[in-house]
């Protein structure tokens, strides 16, 4: 079993924003009626081919609580000495997180494992909750010239321009292959 997480913010006012790239990509790969709310995980979930797709409803900065709940429920975090969760576990075979990234150019993406958050608070939350940074990340580029001097936290909460989202949509077939 794998857990595929798309990061974003749940309120309607965040629909179409750069920070919701993870949600938007999973939405393009599914149908709305497939998603069900799971209160235990504080997330919308979809089961597909034995995998669990997850969209945390905890808001970006607390995404780790939702991811941790799902991994705990399915016993996917290794234990040390049978009692405690092992720190620095390699979860790259079971966890993939799709998220926006200001360090990657718009229209491109990078796949990484075992990398720090680079200031992305959703990733910070996941790393802190799981006690490891060893999981697969699909970092979807949102860096564009339209940012100018806009602070990062404001820029990622702005909606994609039409031609910006089109560039990301072109990546979805490749990203789809990355999560299989």
Give me the secondary-structure topology.
Elements: E1 3-6, H1 21-28, E2 36-38, E3 43-48, E4 51-56, H2 63-73, E5 79-80, E6 84-85, E7 95-105, E8 109-113, H3 121-130, E9 136-143, H4 152-155, H5 162-169, H6 172-178
Parallel strand pairs: 1-4, 1-7, 7-9
Antiparallel strand pairs: 2-3, 3-4, 5-6, 8-9
Fold and architecture overview:
The protein is an alpha/beta fold and 180 residues long. It has a single domain (3-178), classed as Peptidyl-tRNA hydrolase (Rossmann fold). It has six helices and nine strands, in the order βαβββαββββαβααα. The strands form two sheets. A seven-stranded mixed sheet has the order 2-3-4-1-7-9-8. The protein has a two-stranded antiparallel ribbon with strand order 5-6. A hairpin with a 4-residue loop joins strand 2 and strand 3 (43-48). The radius of gyration is 16 Å and the shape is globular. The mean pLDDT is 93.
Radius of gyration: 16 Å
DSSP strand tally: 9
| Count of discrete structural domains | 1
Strand order of the largest sheet: 2-3-4-1-7-9-8
Uncertain runs with pLDDT below 50, 5 residues or more? none
What portion of the residues fall into strands of 2 or more residues?
Answer: 25-35%
Sheet having the most strands: 7 strands, mixed
Give the class-level CATH name.
Answer: Alpha Beta
Structural class: alpha/beta
CATH topology name, in short, is: Rossmann fold
State the separation between the terminal residues, measured CA to CA: 11 Å
Instruction: Write the CATH architecture name.
Output: 3-Layer(aba) Sandwich
SSE order, one letter for each helix or strand: EHEEEHEEEEHEHHH
Task: Give me the number of helical elements.
Answer: 6
Specify the overall morphology.
globular
Can you say what the CATH homologous superfamily is?
Peptidyl-tRNA hydrolase
Helix content: 25-40%
Mean pLDDT: 93
């Amino acid at each position: 079993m794998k857990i595929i997480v798309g990061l974003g913010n749940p309120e309607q006012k965040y629909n179409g924003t750069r920070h919701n790239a993870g949600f938007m990509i999973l939405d393009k790969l599914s149908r709305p009626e497939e998603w069900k709310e799971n209160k235990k995980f504080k997330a919308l979930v979809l089961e597909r081919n034995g995998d669990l797709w997850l969209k945390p409803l905890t808001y970006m900065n607390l995404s780790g609580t939702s991811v941790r709940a799902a991994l705990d429920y399915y016993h996917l975090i290794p234990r040390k000495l049978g009692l405690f969760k092992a720190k620095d576990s390699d979860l790259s075979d079971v966890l993939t997180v799709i998220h926006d990234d200001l360090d990657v150019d718009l229209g491109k993406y990078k796949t990484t494992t075992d990398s720090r958050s680079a200031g992305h608070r959703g990733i910070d939350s996941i790393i802190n909750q799981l006690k490891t940074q060893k999981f697969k990340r699909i970092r979807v580029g949102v860096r564009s010239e339209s940012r100018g001097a806009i602070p990062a936290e404001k820029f990622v909460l702005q909606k994609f321009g039409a031609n910006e989202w089109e560039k990301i949509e072109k990546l979805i077939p490749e990203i789809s292959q990355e999560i299989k």
